[in-house]
């Protein structure tokens, strides 16, 4: 049997008619940039998240850049972020000329904690970017509280956590700005690139809209040096369709995750830890194994595709090799060396799920395999 790490084919087959209608609607309108579909999606996404405002942008990275620019983050400012996140979080900080400061994550959840944030804070810290990694909310309530007492702004990276809740409240609404990616593989994914920012501040919403539109709020009049980062009409129309199905898709992912959690029984494998009061949306089912490479090869031989998220920490990336300010992150490195992401996608069959479980349970280290 072949089990892919992920596939959109089954979801897209179910949505074929709705997506075709969305395409036709945009095609027939003749309007392809910032028109009715984008405005409607922004209203619907803001309402879904429980925020006052949403703005569609071109990518998740751009969402972070626009957010940081709107908060006047720049040279001389320090921005704290988790050491084990995807590099886009750090690149956004670098793009505005600020300094990346890394915080070690929690070993069990792999997420940033208030303690980790406080250990990394400096006298120049202006912003903290908690990342809701793998789909589980970080310790966001505590981080936001500690940040507020120290005058530090919170920008949430929600690229992997569409629909995730903490204490019944949507991620992205705990800080000044929430940032999302709509890369196709996300829980809420476009058929191309896309992203969004959400906020409750009218002032920030207006400024982010201006920044993302060449620094202009009136055509051909540019109040500041902005960028071109806009969610196009076609992607907005597709996202409107998928947003209607997001909760159901997240529930389907959760059911698969529960099957894994209840049935994978291998002492060599550490399963994900879900904290009470946090609704995990299972963008990624991340396990850890000291013999990760041997396990991955074991699964590959059985036709099971896996991915490592992420095999190289920010501090160890070539892009940051010359940055002497980045401190060593031993825990992040250990997590990077042991993490393995299992197949999990909408439409995954019982047979596929059981096949993955049996293969995991049969792994007996590099020296051999258990009887399935």
TrEMBL record:
Extract one GO molecular function annotation from the record.
transaminase activity
* Example of a GO biological process term: polysaccharide biosynthetic process
Name the keywords, alphabetized.
Aminotransferase, Pyridoxal phosphate, Transferase
Annotated InterPro entries: DegT/StrS_aminotransferase, PyrdxlP-dep_Trfase, PyrdxlP-dep_Trfase_major, PyrdxlP-dep_Trfase_small
Which SUPFAM superfamilies does the UniProt record give?
A: PLP-dependent transferases
- UniProt keyword annotation of Transferase present: yes
Catalytic positions are: 186 (proton acceptor)
Record-linked Pfam families: DegT_DnrJ_EryC1
User: Is Transferase given among the entry's keywords?
Assistant: yes
Q: Which residues carry this modification: N6-(pyridoxal phosphate)lysine?
A: 186
Which family is annotated?
Belongs to the DegT/DnrJ/EryC1 family.
**Protein name per the record:** DegT/DnrJ/EryC1/StrS family aminotransferase
């Amino acid at each position: 049997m072949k089990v892919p790490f992920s596939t959109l084919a089954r979801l897209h087959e179910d949505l074929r008619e709705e997506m075709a209608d969305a395409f036709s609607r945009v095609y027939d309108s003749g309007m392809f940039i910032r028109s009715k579909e984008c405005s409607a999606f922004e209203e619907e996404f803001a309402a879904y998240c429980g925020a006052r405002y949403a703005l569609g942008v071109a990518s998740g990275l751009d969402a972070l850049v626009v957010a940081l620019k709107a908060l006047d983050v720049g040279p001389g400012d320090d921005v704290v972020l988790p050491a084990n996140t995807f590099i886009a979080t750090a690149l956004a900080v670098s793009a505005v000329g600020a300094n990346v400061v890394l915080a070690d994550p929690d070993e069990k959840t792999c997420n940033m904690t208030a303690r980790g944030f406080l250990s990394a804070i400096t006298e120049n810290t202006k912003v903290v970017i908690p990342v809701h990694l793998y789909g589980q909310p970080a310790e966001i309530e505590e981080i936001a509280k500690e940040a507020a007492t120290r005058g530090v702004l919170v920008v949430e990276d929600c690229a992997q956590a569409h629909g995730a809740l903490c204490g019944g409240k949507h991620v992205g609404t705990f800080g000044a700005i929430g940032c999302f990616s709509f890369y196709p593989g996300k829980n809420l994914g476009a058929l191309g690139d896309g992203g969004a920012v959400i906020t409750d501040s009218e002032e920030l919403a207006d400024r982010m809209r201006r920044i993302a539109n060449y620094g202009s709020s009136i055509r051909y009049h540019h109040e500041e040096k902005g960028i071109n980062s806009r969610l196009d009409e076609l992607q907005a129309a597709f996202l409107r369709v998928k947003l209607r199905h997001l909760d159901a898709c997240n529930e389907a992912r959760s059911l698969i995750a529960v099957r894994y959690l209840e049935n994978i029984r291998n002492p060599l494998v550490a399963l994900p830890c879900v904290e009470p009061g946090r609704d995990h949306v299972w963008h990624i089912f991340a396990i850890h194994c000291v013999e990760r490479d041997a396990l991955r090869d074991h699964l590959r031989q059985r036709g099971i595709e896996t991915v490592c998220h992420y095999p190289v920490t920010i501090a160890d990336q070539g892009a940051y090799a010359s940055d002497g300010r980045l401190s060593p992150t031993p825990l992040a490195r250990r997590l990077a060396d042991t993490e393995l992401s299992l197949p999990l996608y909408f439409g995954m069959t019982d047979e596929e799920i059981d096949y993955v479980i049996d293969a995991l349970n049969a792994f007996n280290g590099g020296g051999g395999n258990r009887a399935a």
